[in-house]
Amino acid sequence: MNYTVNGLDNDHPIRDMLFHLLPTELPERVDSVPDGADGLGVSVTDTGMEQIVRVCCVRGGKQVCAEQRAAISDDAGQTKRALTHAVKSAIFDALSPFLEVQPEWGALTGVRPAKFARSFLEQGMTPAEVAALMTETYHVTPARRALAIRCAGLALDYKNKQNPRDISVYIGIPFCPSRCSYCSFVSHDIERAGALMADYLDTLCAEIIHTGEILRQADLHIVSMYIGGGTPTTLSAEQLERLLSTVESAFDLHDLTEFTVEAGRPDTITEQKLRTLARHGVGRISINPQSMNDAVLEKIGRKHSAQQVLDAYHLARSIGFDAINMDTIAGLDGDTPDSFARTMDALIALEPENITVHTLAAKRGAEQHDRARNVRKQDTVRQMLDIAAKKLTAAGYSPYYLYRQKFMAGGFENVGWCRLGYECRYNIYMMEELHTIVSLGAGGMTKLVDADGKKIQRMNNPKYPYEYNTSLEKINAGKQALLSWASEL
Ligand code: SF4
Q1: Are 168 and 90 part of one and the same domain?
Q2: Does the CB atom of residue 179 touch ligand 1 within 6 A?
Q3: Are 145 and 135 in contact (CB under 8 A)?
Q4: Is any atom of ligand 1 closer than 6 Å to the C-beta of 185?
Q5: Which residues share a beta bridge with 347?
Q6: b vs e for 336-363, b when ≥16 Cβ sit within 10 Å of the residue's Cβ?
Q7: How far apart are the first and last CA of the chain?
């Protein structure tokens, strides 16, 4: 879709909304669109009191125009947010009449719909008022707004209960036994990148030790810890032993209420590894099937069978793990609503404490045809998500956190479901940006969240293991920022 802009410096909100509404069309800014040709024109007029946004969209010879107004206030941030909202809303109003299927999340483009809903609850609105706002202003469907408001309420409870010095720690292991076809993470196939692993663990343990000292000096309380990836259980039992011993000795874990390791791929799980996790106080693990259909598993490049998922699950139960999460993905190549329903039945029959239902997302930087494939799948994915919601609700699970990604099939969402009292706290803290997450390892992004949760300072570790392995000095020096941030609490 070609678009023109007048009177607006930042066209990011325009591109964001165009990607949201027309995921298969590349938005391209042009100087002008010929009369009658498909295109979108955005103009902003500043009257001194308000900014008037006018948008006209032409498609197939038909034109729809819309107007929105944004108040100008003394608060520059507030003025900017109002303008962004007005631009997105006007584009939605002008473009949505041309869409065959209205997006479930309406004009909401962000990755954190529950955080969005929570911001209104925190301003004193009731859930019913937030629901009305989400419908009338943002055109969110009843099912999606109920999901967002439920998760927002839960996050607010967690926020109100936490101490200002509470933080969480994330440790990343960006290696996997093989690469899944849909993967958009920086994760290295162990067969090809295994040589990096030993150095990676050395660097990671050194970063953990240094960070542990800083966190003690800063008097910060680690309440949840999450080792994710990649697939952390790609590490051998000996390597896991070293990693977890380092964690135990480096960090003050007196306030820790939850320790998760994403075991992930069942083909990496052994009794020795699980016993190592249990011995070091890991109470929550993930065993991720994605599908219980062997043909689908093969098609997406997972080198394990559904039977291996069952074996790993029963092994974990026999060792005593009583908080297990299992991930699925709606929209995988080769999967159908019937086969997805059988996956859900198989997982629910196991009675894990958490089941996370993802929607297939095109990889970052995906080609247009990947995005087009996801759009074609939107009806199938909608059916799958409905099946999941019905079956999980009937089995006593409730949604507790959610997030969205760019280029998800149908623009839907990922939802964590749990049995009563088994919410993964880390997922809530992290996704709702309730408190600081200190992230260690390659690709780790530390987010320093200020006391009222409004300002977030980010610090990135190098993305790839080979860069990370040679950057320890710089990474450790950057951790000083934690001390100055903590002194303001
Ligand atoms: S297990 Fe996860 S991180 Fe690893 S390749 Fe598959 S999708 Fe990527």
Answers
A1: no
A2: yes
A3: yes
A4: yes
A5: none
A6: ebebbbbbbebbbebebbbbbbbbbbbe
A7: 47
Helices (H), 366-471: 368-376, 378-394, 425-431, 465-468
Ligand 1 atom closest to the Cα of residue 189 is 5
223 within domain boundaries? yes
Asked whether the beta carbons of 43 and 54 are under 8 A apart, the reply is yes
Is 204 found in the same domain as 66?
Answer: no
Q: What is the CATH number of the domain that holds 348?
A: 3.80.30.20
Whether 201 and 94 map to the same domain: the answer is no
170 and 84 share a domain? no
Q: How many domains does the chain have?
A: 2
CA atoms within 13 Å, Cβ hemisphere of 122: 18
Look-up of token digits 């997006």: 103
- Amino acid letter for position 422: Y
Whether residue 453 sits in one domain with residue 354 = yes
- Single residue among 80, 100, 120 that ends a domain in this structure: 100
Output the CA torsion 181→183→188→190 (10° steps). -50
Mean pLDDT of 171-196: 80
Give me ligand 1 centre to Cα 193, in Å: 14
Residue pLDDT, tens place only, 115-150: 999 999 999 999 999 999 999 999 999 999 999 999
> Considering only CA atoms, which of 148, 109, 78 is closest in space to residue 13?
109
pLDDT at 241: 98
Tokens of 82: 């109002």
Which residue's alpha carbon is at the smallest distance from atom 2 of ligand 1?
230
The per-residue pLDDT for range 359-377, each reduced to its tens digit, is: 988 765 555 566 666 666 7
Mutation pick for ligand 1 pocket among 175, 186, 187 (CB with most ligand atoms within 8 Å): 187
Structural domain span for residue 12: 1-100
In a domain, 484, yes or no: no
SS3 of residue 440 by DSSP = strand
pLDDT tens figures, 227-274: 998 899 999 999 999 999 999 999 999 999 999 999 989 999 999 999
What was the pLDDT predicted at 367? Answer: 54
Domain boundary among 100, 117, 142: 100
pLDDT of residue 319: 97
Confidence of residue 437 (pLDDT cuts 50, 70, 90): very high
E strand segments, 48-141: 50-59, 62-71
Shared domain for 338 and 242, answered yes or no, is yes
